[in-house]
Design goal:
- This protein has 438 residues and is an alpha/beta fold.
- The protein folds into two domains: 91 residues, Urease, subunit C, domain 1, CATH 2.30.40; 292 residues, Metal-dependent hydrolases (TIM Barrel), CATH 3.20.20.140.
- Helices cover 24% and strands 25% of the residues.
- Strands 1, 2, 3, 4, 5, 13, 14 and 15 form an eight-stranded mixed beta sheet that branches. A seven-stranded parallel beta sheet has the order 6-7-8-9-10-11-12.
- α4 runs parallel beside α5 and α6 runs parallel beside α7.
- It is globular.
- It binds zinc ion (ZN).
- The site of zinc ion has 5 residues, from loops.
């Protein structure tokens, strides 16, 4: 080899080596939550673990993942890392302008009430029926950052008020099933609610729809009628896997009057595989039921809000506040988190959510347990005192931060630029845009 050629080869090699030094290999992960206490019921994880995320998915959960292996590492020591919470019962068909209607003014837009409390997925409980579901989908579901699922009301017109909701002629299990089957990724259940008549028609038609579409029925059992007792509902009419919401309301013999524990209907229903959901709402949660029933061991399968325009500012407030109440009675945090994640996902047959399995959708909540003196109220404005309160620090949806209460993921304002700043969009929705800000 000639000297000149050799020199060129050496120079080229040196240049390649220098370039390699200047541009270290891209980290393996987009985002790393380091040192948090992971609560992942589905995978039986209850301990300190690192959680790595890449391309919107959970990439690895392990005791020690190197902090340099991600574009962004956040120290979450002392905090709890859970799957993104799933609120099984909300009302979010807002924006139609209809007065006194859950397909209108009584509903709220989901994004204002979800990420700030760790919720990444909500289930609208029957605001729309088969006639107006597609309008709901266009107005809200397709435009929200929150993942919005729906339970179709068995009433074709949905939850538009008494005039519509008492109309037996508009309860069509076949038409409802057909709409559910048209949108199987979005419609996760059938809802019957607020019915005041003596007939079983709404429940029976809902079960027809739920059976055809292979999805659960959720029941708000409406007025208490001797012709349709709760015992028959839970032991005969509903199928295993169906859901009884407003479990601590006391409006329809949920409680045994002698023991103050769960009624015989509740005990038999749970044995059959009926799920029991909180759904606090505006008028569906009483301490005089929740306390003795939980102390008797009848804890919720799922903790949900029944979020709407009234409940949001009254006793209910938000998903974490309802969870705080269940904890205040004595249910451990680990169980309470399961009731908002893996259990809920199981109830709506969306097992891909509510867990931190490797490869799962990276929806994550980072929660702080604060201690102090807190008061929690019920539907008749009675108070139960507690010493723990959940606070959401960070919410991640599809692998990117969508809420960060204290800017834990942000750099200090006067810190030098980091090596991976240009790729921040991979792990956060808050990366500065190259275009003018709004
Ligand atoms: Zn409701």
């Amino acid at each position: 080899m000639q000297t000149k050629t050799l020199m060129l080869a050496v120079i080229t090699l040196a240049a390649v080596a220098l370039a390699a030094l200047a541009q270290p290999a891209a980290p393996a992960y987009d985002l790393l939550l380091s040192g948090g206490h992971v609560l992942d019921d589905k995978n039986h994880i209850d301990g300190v673990m690192d959680v790595a995320i890449k391309d919107g998915k959970i990439a690895k959960v392990a005791p020690h993942i190197g902090p340099d292996s991600a574009l962004k590492t956040i120290d979450v020591k002392g905090l709890y890392v859970t799957p993104g919470l799933i609120d099984l019962h909300v009302h979010v068909y807002a924006g139609t302008g209809e007065r006194n209607s859950y397909a209108g003014d009584l509903s709220v837009p989901p994004d204002g009430f979800t990420f700030r409390v760790g919720v990444t997925t909500v289930v609208d409980a029957g605001c729309s029926g088969w006639r107006n579901f597609e309008d709901f989908k266009d107005r809200i579901i397709d435009r929200s950052k929150t993942r919005v699922f729906a339970m179709l009301n068995i009433v074709g017109s949905g939850m538009r008020g008494g005039h519509y909701e008492q109309n037996i002629a508009d309860m069509d299990g076949e038409a409802t099933a057909a709409m559910a089957l048209k949108y199987p990724k979005t419609i996760v259940g059938i809802k019957t609610a607020h019915f005041e008549g003596p007939e079983w028609t709404p429940v029976e038609q809902a079960v027809i729809a739920g059976t055809k579409a292979n999805i659960p029925v959720m029941v708000d059992f409406g007025a208490d009628r001797p012709t349709r007792p709760i015992y028959d509902l839970l032991t005969k009419k509903l199928r295993p896997g169906d859901i009884y919401t407003h479990m601590y309301s006391g409006l329809r013999h949920e409680q045994d009057p002698a023991t103050l524990g769960p009624s015989k209907a509740f005990i038999e229903g749970r044995k059959r595989g009926i799920f029991f959901d909180v759904g606090q709402g505006g008028g569906s949660f009483k301490w005089s039921l929740a306390v003795p029933m939980i102390k008797a061991g009848f804890i919720p399968d799922s903790i949900s809000t029944d979020l709407h325009i009234t409940s949001m500012n009254s006793a209910m407030k938000d998903e974490l506040n309802v969870a705080d109440k269940i904890m205040a009675i004595g249910v451990p945090l680990k169980e309470v988190v399961a009731e908002m994640t893996s259990h809920t996902a199981h109830e709506i047959k969306h097992e891909e959510l509510g867990n931190l399995s490797e490869g799962a959708i990276a929806d994550v909540a980072v929660l702080r347990v604060e201690t102090g003196k807190y008061g929690f109220t019920d539907m008749i404005n009675k108070r139960f005192d507690g010493t723990q309160k959940l606070l959401c620090e960070i919410t991640i949806k599809d692998g990117r931060i969508v809420y960060d209460l204290n800017g834990m993921s942000a750099d200090l304002w006067n810190a030098p630029a980091g090596p991976h700043d240009a790729e921040a969009r991979r792990w956060t929705t808050f990366a500065p845009s190259s275009h003018a800000a709004h």
